[in-house]
Amino acid sequence: MIGHKSQSYSSTTKISTMSSPPIKFGILGCAEIARKVSRAISLSPNSTPHAVASRSHQKAAKFAADNAFPASAKVYASYEALLDDPEVDAVYVPLPTSLHIKWAVLAAQKKKHLLLEKPVALDAKEFDQIIAACESSGVQFMDGTMWMHHPRTAKMKEFLCDGSRFGDLRAVHCCFTFAAEKDFLENDIRVKPDLDALGALGDVGWYCTRSILWAADFELPKTALALRGTVKNSSGVILACSAFLQWEDGKTATFHCSFLANLTMDLTIVGTNGTLKFQDFVIPFEEHKASFSTAVKSGFTELVTGWDPKPSEHTVMTDLPQEVLMVKEFSRLVGGIKYDGAKPEKKWPTLSRKTQLVLDAVKASIDKGYETVEIIS
After folding, report:
1. What CATH number is given to the structural domain containing 360?
2. Are 26 and 35 in contact (CB under 8 A)?
3. What residue stretches are annotated with the Gfo/Idh/MocA-like oxidoreductase N-terminal domain (predicted)?
4. Residue 318 — pLDDT band, cuts 50, 70, 90?
5. Residue 107 sits in a domain of what CATH number?
6. To 5 degrees, how large is the angle CA 235–CA 239–CA 242?
């Protein structure tokens, strides 16, 4: 417990009979993260796993069996075959980033709604091609940034929007690191230049960048400057890096991302009146509850021996894990398009593109010898 006061919020989701049939998902590839999202698709009340594809029929069949797919689920030995299945409404794509441009575009052209793992592309130019295909086919796009859908995120935003308590944003500091094992550093797709060339910047750095933009109401910074000390492997893939972002009005942000340091998921957001902090911003310490702390107009006690007032902790409960809430929201949007004639929600591709633009600028700064790079939308 932090400080003098604790508040608890509950986000209770009632699972009721859906008025429309569940959205049928196909999964392209059997990556480790696909296990977590497959579970989310099964737990979400408005979706169901319908098919999985791999370049090996045996591998796809094993994935379906290991992840409790329904007996009616289909198994395909090629991604093309799954995309040609007329019953598939949406696809989840956890393929290496270098393959996104091919398979995400083809999925959109086949009129499959697209839940795409992050980073969404190798650069914004590739991402624009993906979104152009989605818009042409009228399909919904969303990236796989799960923490955006946790009810804690909405509750924290309420604090950040409270001018009397938080004030105006002045600074954001973010750190996401984990200590990868030797096998990861030698064999994981995230350290291979032909598969995920952005390395740690595209993986853990994506989350740092998204959190900073979220805190800034998705106002793009004016400039990005990579800080010296970037670590690369022998193939030139980033294993650790840091960056400094600045806006025209003077607010700033820093982040550090790494595959080479102990697991850390810290985010600190500083305003003129208040501060928000939490230590598990990507994956909560616990699946069904998450906390954050706030400090408002803090000062020192007499003789400067303590804080007054002390920070307070706030806990948010949720029946459904954040990845399930992500799938549920995506399926709700897809269902609105399929059954109610709604148009795709443009919010999600817009947020993805802004995140990608910042990553591109940081990567450019590294490549240019740590020059300041202007971010142009």
Report:
1. 3.30.360.10
2. no
3. 23-142
4. very high
5. 3.40.50.720
6. 130
Q: Residue 79's closest CA among 98, 104, 97? A: 104
C-alpha torsion 238→373→282→261, nearest 10: 40
Instruction: Please give the helix or strand (H or E) that residue 298 lies within, else none.
Output: none
Query: Is 347 within a domain?
Result: no
Tally of CA atoms within 13 A in the half-sphere of 333 that contains its CB: 21
Q: Where are the beta strands (DSSP E) in the chain?
A: 6-11, 23-28, 47-53, 74-76, 90-93, 113-116, 141-143, 169-179, 223-232, 238-246, 252-258, 260-271, 274-278, 289-296, 299-300, 307-308, 312-318, 373-374
217: which residues sit within 8 A by CB, 6+ positions away?
A: none
pLDDT tens per residue, range 29-73:
999 999 999 999 999 999 999 999 999 999 999 999 999 899 999
Q: Are residues 156 and 31 in the same domain?
A: no
pTM: 0.94
Report the distance separating Cα 124 and Cα 204, nearest Å. 18
Radius of gyration of the chain (CA): 21
Cis peptide before 94 (omega within 30 of 0): no
Report yes or no on 223 lying in a domain.
yes
- Domain range for 215 is 151-323+355-374
Residues 46 and 67 in one domain: yes
Query: What is the DSSP code string of 225-284?
Result: EEEEEEEE-TTS-EEEEEEEEE-TTS-EEEEEEESEEEEEEEEEEEESSEEEEESBSSS-
- Read off the DSSP letter of residue 33: H
Tell me which residues are annotated as active site. 118
